[in-house]
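Risk register update: the risk that structure generation would not scale has been downgraded. Supporting records follow, first protein first.
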Amino acid sequence: MELSLSQYKTQLGELLTARSHAAAFNTTRATYLRTRIVALCYIWAALCALWIPVDALLLNESVTTLAIFRLKLCAVLLFIGWTTNQRSTLNACRNAMFALVVSLNMFYMLTNHQLGYPHNIDAFSYCYNLLPFVYVVILTILPLTVKESVCVMLITAASQIYVDIQSGALLSFDTIALYWLQTVVGILVIWAQTSKLHMMLRLYRHATLDPLTGVYNRRMLLTLAKRDFENTRTKSRPYSVLLMDLDRFKRVNDRYGHHAGDIVLQAFTQAVQETQRKSDIFGRFGGEEFILFLPQCSADNAQLVADRIMTRVRDMGIEVEGVSEPLKVTTSIGISTSLCKSDDLSLILEQADQALFKAKNGGRDQSSTYDQEEDLIEDGQKRPWLELVN
């Protein structure tokens, strides 16, 4: 399937910076980054310690000082790996990644200073001058945005330029050739990192998003909502749910075809997304039913959101090829709000379902808030929300 220009721009923006990434994807990427950063820290710490006997065998001077530097770097890397393993946020992983890069480059500058900034290609100590090259290559395993990758490489480039200035070899032929090689490798590393990120984004969309509307599918919707609801409930804050159903949607499919129905669903999701906050969770439950979870939202505010959505949907004129006039649709909304710590997500979903039933029976194109004193649906007619959430 060919991508439109706007889709290309969206994908390019997602690879350049993480600003537009969904919170759920950030959580997934953080888990991926954490395991690899922790592995890098532990493996590099082990290799760093194992190199001490090599220094002792092949270097005549500075062996003790270099060994101390290596042991200190091992301790720092082990600390970074341990602390990173205790955290799961994307910001924590980014901080750990930058701490890793900074500590490695500090080691590079200190060891070169101790060795007198060697640049003799035949000397064993020349291996220390190749460390920035290694630092760039090992980061290939991380799925990073272009912005993150460039920032990491700038840190390494700054430390290498500093060492070359101190050694007086900044403008030598060997140094310029090495810079050219590292630039080529750096571009390939950025390409590899962003390719991993792009693949993660594609897999994430396939697993979590509804392919037609681009919003969360039922599985991801309820998974995110359950976690979000538990966090809100522990803080004794209100949590509201809007269960929405497009009125007489079957008539659209029967009269104008399923293609027209798809366009209506896409227009509806766009209208709802224009009203939601960043913290809200919106997705397609199935067919023409959608759910909007509103954390820290009172019943009165939930009613205002429902009114805003119904107005937007009511005012839409949906253009469909082959249909002379724009299509007009409406939606019915069931509202439920949790105020009690003892409530669970399945309960308020069931309450929203009952309120939606009332709105449908009341004539459609309206919202209804769950009334605890009313028993609107017989037990046999209630949907098994508990099974869906659990």
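Supporting record for the second protein:
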Amino acid sequence: MSAAVTPRHARHTAGLMRSIYLPRTADALAFAMSTYGIPLLVLATTRSAALTGGAFALEWIPRLAAFGWAGSIVDRRGAAVVFHLASLGRALALAAGAVLLHLHPSGTVASATVMVLAATTGVLTEFSYIAAETAGAAAGRRAGARAHRVQAVLLGIDQTATLAGPALAGVLLLAGPLPMLAVITVLSLLAALLALRTPPSPAPARALKGQTGAGLLTGWRTIRTLPALGWLVTGLTLSNLATGLLQAAGPVIVVKHFGQSTTAVGLIWSAAAAATLLAVTICRFALDRLGLWPVGATCAALASLATLAAAQAPDYLSYLVLVAVLMAADGGMTVVLRTLRSRLIPLEQFGSTLSATILILLLPFPVAGVLTALTPPAALGHAITACAALQALGLFCAFARLRTDPALRT
């Protein structure tokens, strides 16, 4: 029997590699490089810090606004089609931007080009991300009991891209804007070509056509019908407020409180990304043996304790370690969330529901930025402690409610 099972498992893994993992890798690298590289390109082109900040906002504001549209279109047209077209559109936009910057390396045309690139790549990247997530969820559902393994691999791909993408974009930009844009263009084109191998969605949501309530409203309604998903999203949203505050206040804490350089701030998040990769690998095997609830509850406890301790960290090194532990635990909970939503959300509403959950989970981050701006630097530790207490309460209530839920028993 094992001789028969092994080739079948090998064929399944190879199929996932070609149809899901490789296109997701190319898209994730393009995502990370454009997200962090385009603002750097704006700074290199315009020499304006204000325009650089504006470019970052132009990347993210359209993304948040596009969530509902992206999910609805993925549900209607299918993940493979949207994935292909969004990646191809990003490649064409970047290629056009590279040509314009070659012809007009500075001045008004160059400034307008990089700002338009920021907005365009932000929207198209959101569409490709939602489509890729939907395709990954469908693959996880087909994997059955091994769904968490698929989600762990996908999360590992995202974290690796987050770790490597910004550094690669910065190194390429040293050689000039054109090499960086060329590499992102090639990655986008590669993602578009590989997306042609992505399996089509089993059943596009014909029922959503013509419904004015499609999109985020449909996703919100679906979440309300799935209590397990709703509780987990609620707990993680409160957790993200603490995580967002640590991210927003990180430069102030590291530079002002610990007396380190700005490079030390980046080192924290590189260490956090590496710790998350390790945690995702461990969770992949722990979920095989323990199930969703024990792993999720353990990660929730570690995240809460790490945030409470980070608020009182005596030095930079301990702060770095505690933030890395927090992000690693958050990565474990994300694997649980991905697995749960791939099991529970009906495929015909997956894109819309995914958009709604991501938007809810992202809302605490701008709140954390406002909180950081309004809090005196000397009081940031108290603010983090308060958010950590809220995080612990939210995660405790969520996992206490989910302990007997059938969706987390396996």
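DSSP finds 14 helices and no strands in the chain. On this basis the risk owner (M.S.) recommends closing the item.
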